[in-house]
């Protein structure tokens, strides 16, 4: 296979003949355009160019071996002709006279609440990356309720108590952390920060908080664990941080088992199976962005719906939030837990429980935990907030809270939100977007700062509530009547153990 001239590659820059360069090799991806997970426009924009750096924001390079059609590889590009490849303009560049100085990145010390990280990230992230992080389903009502419902629960503080010292430690499946919150799984971090997942988890290790790693990560399962181990070694074992794994089940049983065995071999401490994504919810802002990208490359007449199947790494189900055909299973049932348990010996958590019936089923099927979540408001339109689901479980099947570990995520933006969840019976809570924005704006230092902000609010909240340890948190310390009054209340309701 001889060298290919860069000038020849540059000629193939349209939908009829589309070539790109990845890792110094030329590929003909014309037939792959409408199979690409992120849609045809992003490939066409990079047609005739060296797209390696753009590609690595979303995929590890071994993706090429798994998804490109056979025969796509044309050969290595002559290194002396790289300058003849088509060059992309930096879309973020602007004349100095047009730069809005009000959107410059503020000093990290100005981030005094979790919401400040979004403002900072929006100022510096490319528009597409910000859309990916912030988008929600349909008109955004699920995300809005996630945020608003925390304000509908009030504290009932106790006074005249010695709260000089407080203990914020909490264990997740026996693994202790200094705080009762962890970093939620989020995919495609390479689109947010060039350091991607390793940079995020560097901050986590330094602060000792646990993390759940997404199947849809930019880096492979093995690469993430290796970078985590290296960071732990730098800390000389002083950090209690542990990695858990958010698992999207592929349709292919062999691939599902293969991924599970990789996760087990790498040493992840628990399998958090995503059960709220049999299909992808309608990500409205993503749809607008896809349409804009399509018009920019002259294929506006073609349906964007065809592009919404694809993947991030060899096992990932989503690229920029779009699932891969065959990688995201709509067929998973409760019965699958039987063979999963044979393959996985550690803790199993069902991620995406949204009603009391399913919480009780998870307990009866032997799950070790459940994660109450509506996927950050990105899936079902007007799905219940995790806080509402927690109240429903406490009302109709409180035994679940005693027998398995119960986590929740969605809309937490303050350490006091964490405290409310603990009072209502949660084991620990996941925080997602604030950490993603902190990473995008400041890298691992931003992640550390976000931990500090939440921890300070939590400690202050405990003192003002009148507790010195998390096991003192009780339902009587909060007033959730506004949520309870709006909770679904049939005339005769009992949580059934069968479907």
From TrEMBL:
Residue intervals of the Cytochrome b5 heme-binding domain: 1-78
Protein name: Mitochondrial cytochrome-like protein b2
Entry cofactors: FMN
Pfam families listed in its UniProt record: Cyt-b5, FMN_dh
Family label: Belongs to the cytochrome b5 family.
Lineage: Eukaryota, Fungi, Dikarya, Ascomycota, Pezizomycotina
Residue ranges of domain FMN hydroxy acid dehydrogenase in the record: 106-483
A Gene Ontology molecular function term of the record: oxidoreductase activity
Keywords: Heme, Iron, Metal-binding, Oxidoreductase
Coiled coil segments of this chain: none
UniProt keyword annotation of ATP-binding present: no
InterPro entries linked to this entry: Aldolase_TIM (IPR013785), Cyt_B5-like_heme/steroid-bd (IPR001199), Cyt_B5-like_heme/steroid_sf (IPR036400), Cyt_B5_heme-BS (IPR018506), FMN-dep_DH (IPR000262), FMN_HAD (IPR037396), FMN_hydac_DH_AS (IPR008259), L-MDH/L-LDH_FMN-bd (IPR037458)
